[in-house]
Amino acid sequence: MTNIPTNNRNYFKLELLIARSYVILRQLFKTRYSLFNGGKIWDDSTTCGKNFWTNIVTKNKKINLTSVQKTSVTNGNSNDWDLTTLTALLLNSDRPKTLNKTQIQQLDNEDKILTELRDIRNKLAHHASKSIDDVEFNQLWSELTTILVALGDIDSELDKIKDDSVFDTRTQSINEENVQEALRLNALGTQAHKDRKFSDAITLFTKATVLSGVSNHDRAVFYSNMSSSRLALYELKSGSSNKTEIDDPRDHRYRALQDAKQARILWPTWWKGHFRVGKVYATINEHEKAINSFERALALGPTNNDVQKALDNSRLIYSQQLRQEHLDPRLQPKTMDEQLSELQQKMGVNPEHVRSGHSLIKEIDPSGADVVKAHKYEHGDIDVKQDYEQAAKYFAKAARQENAEGIYNLARLTDRGLGVKKDHNLALKLYEQAASLPPKHPIFKVIPNLGVAEAEHALGLRYAEGISVHKDLPTAAYWYQRAMEHGSGPAANNLALMYLHGTGVDKNLEKAEQLLELASKRGDPNAMLTLAGLLLHKNDFKMAKIWHDRACESGNIVAQMGRNKFEEMLSDKKQFINCSSPNILQMVDGMKNVIDSLKPKGAVYKTSNKSYIHDYNMFNEYANRGSITAKKMCDALEHYMEAFNVLTHSETLAEKEEDLFVHQLAQCYRIEHIVAQIPSIKMRQRIEEIVDHVLHRNSLEFNVNNSQSDEDARICYAVLHMDSHALVAKFLEQCKEKYPKSIHFFELSATVHGWLDQYETAIYVANSGLKVDPDYYELLYYKAVALRLLDKDLNEAIEAYRTFLAAAPKDHRKVPESYYAMACCYIARLKDNGMIDKGMIDIVEKTYKEGEDAEKLQLPCFLPYDSNNKTLVKSMFDAKSLLNTQSSPPINLKLRLTDPHRVKLIQEHREWEAKTLKAINDPYYSLETGTHKPGVKQQTAKSFIGLKAISLKEMDPTKEHVYEGYVLSAKIIEVAYTWSPSIHLVIEDEHLDCERMFIYDFPQEQGHYLTSKVYTIGSKLNIINPYLRIGRCDMKPLIRVDDSSSIIMQSESERVLNMCRCCGISNALNVCGKCKQARYCTKQCQTMDWELYKHKLICKKL
């Protein structure tokens, strides 16, 4: 263990301490079993176990056990039960009503202790780095020993475990003859395993384990090998069986698990024992437990590639389980024939036409033909037997021709080990290769380049889960954003969830709703369900019901199972609103808006649109006036810009240039990290590679002596990977040990321990750093925050905030927050006192006012000031503010204009019009156009009598349907300049939602008149019996009109005159200087129309 870091040793000492409880808890179970069952004795027999399971456990809904735990209980041998099983049985078993008061009190006390033990065990189990610093270790050690002594253990015996000698090989009575025989049997068993004679191997390993006088470490090896052979034997006998549950103690996997656990008990600090346990859990699909075991193995063998691969694989599968991919109807296996039949049913596409296209594609796009073959082999077809190896072969063939769909699917099969060797690192490279290709098909320019958006989404998942890469939420958000922009529904859903919870991006419920709606329009069933819940929260009952129904219809099993509960919640909310007074409703809405506005606790290293570079002149001006904070921002920005000057000077940097770049970036991070907003993901990846290279180079050159270059690289590494909390916390422990005078490592360490909810450790780290520099106000602030969140002594927290305020500049960005936090501390003291204290209320109001005054001193870039504590204090002490809160916030115009669905519609419309105009005006340019016959017939109505209004939101964008008996009202926001084969428009309804509209079957000679005089910008129209069509080429929704008489134009007086081409406001005065026709209400709108909506495409055509 001497080569294992102290913090990892601390973790495994705590594990050994918890293991001490097993014997005690087993005896406690037997005592309770006798007490609860009239004096019966638990004898560890199978009969006893089966009777207990049948008569007690199955009748108790509170006891939830996995299949492995169920098997161990029915087997009856309590020696096989782990802590989770024991605590589940002890805490949830029904007590007989015959117990006396003393017995009940004793059981209650025991249950309290058991709950504490279970919670500590769970905390350790989910500790990803398996690294516990001395402060946390001492705290947990104290808690655990108190629990164990209370349960009957001996204090002096527990102290022995605390010494490092506990990991030394124990002095055992060794029988050399037996040792040699055991080693011989082990060698024979190993050879039998290699020869695939697994039963023989198990017999040989078993004989080796029972020989006396053999060291525990040797016996651990024998049990580990036996576990491996049992798993191999199971896989040999089970063949292609997908059975995961264990229901028989004779199951080879169950016995393999017991063998692996025995190896782990005999040698707790051997990586392979934990690895073997993880392998069994992975085999039975319990990947959360597998991850825990693999993380332990990795902590003991950090360079072991097999462990890292197994950990990556379980993380990948576990993330799929958490996303409930097994319930997603889109991911269920279907043959090509079944897929084509489904396409015909939903879209009316003739399967024979698709197959004809498959046969023709070889001449036009050979790599595309290889992809089609690969899909047939992967899924099976009428004349093709499913064969993953052949599928991988053809995907690889297409990949060699730079086919994005081929590369992506080869990566997908490589990730899962289907037809090719499983390799997560290779899959990552293939995803990156596919994501680097153009988003439009290289041959068929009007359709997406399949595989690009899918690969971008896969990369987002990789960075979100930390599979084969460091977990990095801002990078995940970047890839989700790219995939969303290129048409991915799942990516839009995942990005929405990040905005919904404020993970990796700033929390923004409006943006989340917008993205959920986009994902839902693209057919994502998960987004539909989440959107329904969000709309229910907003009391938009009609749309909540519509989207929940759509989620159910799309095959979302979770939605289907929860349909009754959702409808009950909807009914209850309606009833509450109907029965409540307006003041109560306004108060409830106000509190809801307060809660929604709160930012989540977590990393501040997020994707942000804020760039401080443009504020340099402002910072310089304030610095010249004496602002210390502005001077820091200037200094940080100067180092940041120096770093990027070095980076952009050359594609490759020499060692000196690398050191200079890392030094300048580290200096920026030391002074003020928030200014370092890296502009692109590629640049971030390049920076990470440089930092990793400098770290590695320094590890080789400076094994003994410290260096400035090494310290700089460590600062950069920690900041760049702050999303991987546990990893960075462990890394920073090494940094503090190596550079005990570097205050910035203490600052970063205190911060990350706070994010991990390890407040006592954060306080300890802050105090240690303050010994280096007692006046370092950044650490003073983090110490105050940790004391407040620890919630043990709020007076101490208040005093810590005051110490920070005395040391920090008056315009420091955390000064107002400190006052608001102190006000929250005073409020908490009010609650603790349980009585109204006018003096304390005055203090709260005074402190709150000090925070508001402090805001007036803030630099302009930090305003308007954002503070959860301010929001909470204001809501608690200003009831009037809640009554004045708007129940529905006003529509965010900027958010509407940047709605990705709207942007995409207008961009693609203008691209289409530009291409068709070029085809008309350029004899050397050709553009193939055509149309498909409508799937359903639109009935024409001649009047509005009896028609109901419908909005675009209420029309299902995933299904082709004619809405008979309805009328859709809208205005034209994008016009057509051509009319063959149809007139293409973009319309916007009264709720500011927009969609494409195609008009067919009009006299072609009237095309110019219709596009220039009738269907013009700002004109309003009504569409009777609107037909929502799914485009046959792009599978996107549009409003199709096959009879122009179903369009009734509204009067000229209703038309929006001189409409702004960007926001739609009337009487826009500014005119485009080039085309002289497009109007804008402001310069900002003109810039947005030019840059975002690509006005340049149609500017000269107007």
UniProtKB/TrEMBL annotation:
Any Pfam family hit: Sel1
UniProt repeat feature TPR, residue ranges: 271-304
GO MF annotations in UniProt: zinc ion binding
Entry keywords, A to Z: Metal-binding, TPR repeat, Zinc, Zinc-finger
Organism domain of life: Eukaryota
Residue ranges occupied by any MYND-type domain in the UniProt entry: 1060-1099
Record-linked InterPro entries: HEPN_DZIP3, Sel1-like, Sel1_AlgK, TPR-like_helical_dom_sf, TPR_rpt, Znf_MYND
Family membership: Belongs to the sel-1 family.
Name under which the protein is recorded: MYND-type domain-containing protein
Organism encoding this protein: Adineta steineri
